[in-house]
Specification:
Largest sheet: 6 strands, mixed
Mean pLDDT: 88
Keywords: Signal
Number of helices: 2
Protein name: TolB-like 6-blade propeller-like
Strand order of the largest sheet: 3-2-34-33-32-28
Shape: globular
Low-confidence stretches: 1-41
Strand content: over 45%
């Protein structure tokens, strides 16, 4: 089976617990990260997609494969070198500059397998991303790499590589330091700090997990705001009891508090323990406002009050938070994917105000698939349409708009 086609099926086979585990919910797959294009079963295709402004005017075009990363002035994207292949062994990386409309090649990754685009992070003039290479997602046949993209010189390089490394790690920025939550091959997980100025690496925290017995603790995801670092910590006891905790530290790694957030999936599923074990695809904590999204069906938007969680609004499995390579400390942008109304929500992290709008284009059949946001509050909105009865598809679109152009109320 073609390499990039079956990756989307295999992606979730490893994220149920802290190790490589062969049981997970495949409802969503990894469609937001790996999008198999093409109309036949014998080829993997790039996709040509036009970029529109708020007035439905075409302002650019790229040929890409998979999901996109938005920086302050550009799009970082992947492209299959041959355009159409049966088994891709290489992946080109490009940068599209909005102002000049230039498409600049950054480099090529050989034996490309997967990229954790959901947690790509920008620090200064550099973008950091986890890329996995190999022939399969089995530990002995894969290598995890931390790549750096130099946005000044349009070049990419490997910071470090780890044989057998876990593909679905998370990262966040604290000043000039990149903090990474990494599952380690011998068991357990570590919180590692990489100083982007000195290139020094050091382990800040470690959690032990017995892969065979499925007992112990693991870091599920990390995030940061102006003053704190937040860790989602999974704990599984010998009797199978599963709990999820939010551990908060200051930027000097002094411990502040722990909050039990195990009630997150209580209304979304009849198997909350299984949901708590799932890998986490998006996670934000700012001024005690809390958002959680896993690779399965659970979403939660709320606030920490009196050492417990309270919900702000009821949300469903298609509710998403915008992807941010620089995490916003002012507001959270959320949207209803695959929805008829294209609803968007803006949560003010200072006063808790939640405002709503809709995003309509000239053909109202289009629905939102994904939204990326940069530190200038520019948005890149991916839209598609497929008729549920006939299978008819409209050509996908990208909309590059300013947050201020959307009328929230």
């Amino acid at each position: 089976m073609k390499k990039l086609i079956w990756i989307s099926v295999l992606v979730l086979l490893m994220i149920l617990c802290s190790c490589d585990n062969n049981s997970a919910n495949e409802k969503r797959g990894d469609s937001k990260q790996t999008i198999s294009q093409g109309t036949t079963s014998n080829s993997i295709l790039n996709e040509t997609i036009s970029i529109y402004d708020i007035n439905n005017v075409i302002i650019g075009e790229i040929e890409r494969y998979g999901i996109l990363v938005l920086t302050d002035d550009s799009i970082i994207y992947n492209k299959i070198p041959a355009g159409s292949v049966e088994s891709a062994a290489k992946m080109d990386y490009y940068r599209y500059i909005f102002e000049t409309k230039d498409n600049i090649k950054l480099g090529t990754v050989d034996n490309w397998l997967y990229e954790a685009k959901y947690d790509t992070t920008v620090i200064g003039d550099s973008l950091y991303m986890f890329v996995t290479t190999g022939t399969s997602l089995d530990r002995e046949n894969r290598t995890l790499h931390l790549y750096k993209v130099d946005l000044n010189n349009n070049a990419m390089s490997v910071v470090f590589s780890e044989k057998g490394g876990f593909p679905y790690n998370s990262m966040t920025a604290v000043g000039n330091k990149l903090l990474m939550a990494r599952v380690i091959a011998k068991g357990g997980s570590e919180l590692e700090e990489y100083d982007t100025e000195t290139n020094e690496r050091k382990i800040l925290k470690r959690f032990d997990f017995d892969n065979k017995a499925q007992i112990g603790e693991a870091i599920r995801h990390i995030t940061s705001d102006h003053q704190t670092l937040s860790l989602l910590r999974l704990k599984i006891e010998s009797d199978g009891k599963t709990q999820l905790y939010l551990d908060t530290y200051d930027h000097n790694m002094s411990f502040l508090r722990t909050v039990d957030v195990s009630t997150i999936p209580s209304h979304s599923t009849d198997s909350p323990g299984n949901e708590l074990r799932q890998g986490v695809s998006n996670f934000a904590v700012v001024n005690d406002y809390f958002y959680y999204e896993n690779f399965s069906i659970t979403r939660f938007l709320g606030k920490i009050e009196n050492e417990s969680l309270s919900s702000i609004m009821d949300i469903n499995p298609e509710f998403e938070m915008s992807s941010e390579s620089v995490e916003s400390k002012l507001s959270g942008l959320f949207y209803q994917s695959f929805g008829k109304n294209n609803d968007l929500y803006l949560l003010n992290y200072t006063d808790g105000t939640l405002k709503k709008t809709t995003f309509k284009v000239d053909d109202e059949r289009y629905y939102i698939i994904n939204i990326s946001r940069n530190s200038n509050d520019d948005l890149l909105i991916t839209m598609r349409y497929k008729d549920p009865d006939t299978g008819e598809e409209l050509r996908p679109r990208l909309y590059y708009v300013k947050l201020s152009e959307l009328k929230f109320s």
